[in-house]
Amino acid sequence: MGSFLLLLNLLCFTCLNFTWAVEEHKTYIIHMDHSKRPTSFSTHEEWHLSTLASLSSSSSLPSSAMEDRLLYTYTHAMHGFSARLTFSELAELENHPAHVASYPDSYGQLLTTYTPKFLGLSKTSGIWPESSYGSDIIIGILDTGIWPESKSFDDHGLSPVPDRWKGRCENRTTFSMSLCNRKLIGARSFSKGLRASGLHIEDFDYDSPRDFDGHGTHTSSTAAGNYVHNVEYFGYAKGSAKGIAPAARVAIYKVVWSSDDDSSAATDVLAGIDQAIADGVDVMSLSLAFKPASPYHEDVIAIGALSAVRRGILVSCSAGNSGSSWYSVLNGAPWIMTVGAGTTDRSFSASLTLGNGFMLHGTSYFPLSIYIADLPLYYDRSNISKASCLNSSLEVSQVAGKVVLCDMNNQTNIFNQIDEVNRAGAAAGIFVGHTMLLEPDSLYIPSLVVQPSEADRVKQYASQTINATVKEMTFQITKHNAKPAPQVTYFSSRGPNPISPMVLKPDVLAPGKDVLAAWVPHNPTAKYRSDKLVSTYALDSGTSMSSPHVAAVAALVRSVHQDWSAAAIKSAIMTTAQIYDNRHAIIRNEGTSQPATPLDFGSGHVDPNRAMDPGLIYDLDFQDYVNFICTLNYTTKQMMAMLRLRKWECKLDKGDLNYPSFIAVFNKTDVPSYPKNKTFIRVLTNVGLPDAVYSSAVDVPKGMKVIITPSSLTFSERNDKQIFRLHLEVDEEALSAGQKGTRVAYGYLRWTDEKSEHIVSSPIVAIVH
């Protein structure tokens, strides 16, 4: 018995020592100096495997075990790899001559309507808790209607509807009053103007506030959708959806109808605005516009918005999707918050591993969880038509069941190439090209798009390897922290303002690319070959998506500062906007390495938390807008149409509009000599602490001179006002080439308090045409 106990004790001692001796494996990310890769290794992955195999602990392990421990080889996002290592192995690896840095893997929470996080909104600090998430603020959305059954419009956790609300919900065949609740507090539709044109609503849409298209449901939930868990878009962007102001109330005004051209009658739009004002909305968002831009007295949105602003309602409107052409911005009236579209740092992709082990990621929205493995790779480099997948160039007998690589060619595009690869019966496609134009339903076959700069390794392998293969393709990958971001999207309309170029437009930039929000369940959002797929949440892009973001930010600011005017809220959002991306460089235009200008992004990208406490504001009242309109040389009747007044007073001696940005437009024939100069007069109001002193600083290029008088401002109390002058002089050397014979120069004015707690920033732009 004693011998047995002794043997048992020895065994237990051995077990204890063995447990103590085995180190825990953790995942680490290793940055390597790729320039130190020996030439004997054809790929980074081979080098990384060899590096791991050289560790002293690896001598007794088979090569397959090392391959299992190497998780990823990174060649684009960074140079290096991730692997499962013990602490001892990590310490040994850090002595490798090519080692740069290493850190343990981290784990983030899943997010869906990702833009709240991208905008810095947090449950624990900042404008969300300060504003009670926008509770009791009413956002009026003028759009295609709403799908009330969406979980985004559930009223769980919301307080009763504010007593001041005067609106109602229509009771129609396809929309019951009972569908409204504490979240969706109003729903109206306006179609008389459209019907008067001869269209029959019932032929193509619901004759009610119910959304047939999906657009209005998307914008409404982007602005104020409640929390919804376990949301995704066909495997992408999994997580929890929520609006920018998740506790705000929604009132929908259906003024856009789902005919072939998304018809919207101006009369109906104006009626919707009018009703929203009467109902008592606090903020209004219109993701629509009338083209081309018209004089304000003919623009129903400008007219209606002026009336709304007069009653303290901030009106946010989309800048338009006419792309990078100058003078293309819409909804540019100075009393409107005109919003351009930016990208976020979230991307959607697929991974591709070639037969030689080379791996990369490409953009993809392919909606199914398909795993493609060990298929032949087809690429006929000797035949331009086949290499480029031109129309009817691929032979079914050659490509059926294979993965086809399609090169760039100016005779075709990715969309036509996808059709061709699908027609020929290929299993999947690899397309080389720029990804800006891709939409979520573009990639309806298993495929990904690789940027031209990253495609050479793929083309080289495919053209030089007999029996080239694709080892694997995997889809439904969501990535974060893509850089640089934000960028100005390719489709976002640009300034100058074609109607009143003396006011800089757009005002700000907000997320407008691949925004995930609620959708109608019957309108397909993706395709798989000939099959159409539906989802209750969808990705969508456009300045339509950016406007509700800013409307919701305005709702949050309104909740904190309920006595502020619409102009005050607008100023707070503009002067705290950011002009830098996540690499701390000036925001770029999407798809380029060139910095964008205030003609592209206005005052910058919206920053909700900073907008809550701007320090100083450029305030305006209705009379200021009257003075501005008086300078436009409108007739008496046109003025009446704008102002909805029979009598008004033009106080032209008050100076220029007290706008939070500065733009001077010079006609080189009227003012042929240099320097060209202009003086602006502005009034700043202190909305911060009393006894505040602000100092000015300007950042301008050579040849552009700005003098601020006085250079510092002292505010003795809250709401104290101070006047300053900005004198601008521009020499020819400061101007860079632009579009349509226009040249531009720009810089920034910043007012900073003594503690640097508030930085009040404004762009300064000079245009010569």
Automatic annotation (TrEMBL):
CDD domains: PA_subtilisin_like (cd02120), Peptidases_S8_3 (cd04852). GO terms for cellular component: extracellular region. This is Peptidase S8/S53 domain-containing protein. GO terms for molecular function: serine-type endopeptidase activity. PROSITE patterns: SUBTILASE (PS51892), SUBTILASE_SER (PS00138). It is found in: Secreted. Its main location: secreted. It comes from the Eukaryota. It comes from Nymphaea colorata. Pfam families: fn3_6, Inhibitor_I9, Peptidase_S8. Residues 27-107 form the Inhibitor I9 domain. InterPro entries: Peptidase_S8/S53_dom (IPR000209), Peptidase_S8/S53_dom_sf (IPR036852), Peptidase_S8_Ser-AS (IPR023828), Peptidase_S8_subtilisin-rel (IPR015500), Peptidases_S8_3 (IPR034197), S8pro/Inhibitor_I9 (IPR010259), S8pro/Inhibitor_I9_sf (IPR037045), SBT (IPR045051). Keywords: Glycoprotein, Hydrolase, Protease, Secreted, Serine protease, Signal.
